[in-house]
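Service request form, structural biology core

Requester: graduate student, group of Dr. S.
Request type: structure prediction, single chain
Budget code: on file
Notes: please return the result as structure tokens.

Sequence provided:
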Amino acid sequence: MALQYHTKLDVGDIAPYVLLPGDPKRVATVASYWDEAHLVADNREHVTYTGTYKGKEVSVMGHGMGISSISIYTFELYNFYGVKRIIRTGSCGAYQPNLHIGDIVIAQGACDNSNYAAQYNLPGTFAPIADYEMLSAAVEKAKSMGVKYAVGNILASE
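Core staff response, request fulfilled:
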């Protein structure tokens, strides 16, 4: 397989588990917490590191802003690189007055107002939901750390 146009990743560059912050400037910071990490791609705003964290092979890649951007990268990661899990990390706004800057939001489902699903011929209204085991593990970790968190649906909007 040739390098993908957008990611400039080769087979083997990306781990089965990928953290996906929007801001490419956060990528190196995330990778700095790992046992070992190395830069595998730097194309446009999409910086990618792969390494290990507690013995698990992981990658982190910036996806840029907006649904259009994240849709390109998630499609390529799942369809060309054998990625098993993607965890979107980063910042967001909030509609609920009880949420404040720095609070942790654990997304149970994601709704959007884009035409993303139609371009892949997905029937009906498609709202991705979190893997239950990952969702439960995130909630338990937040509880054990004593951090303020909220679980619920999110809205992705251009």
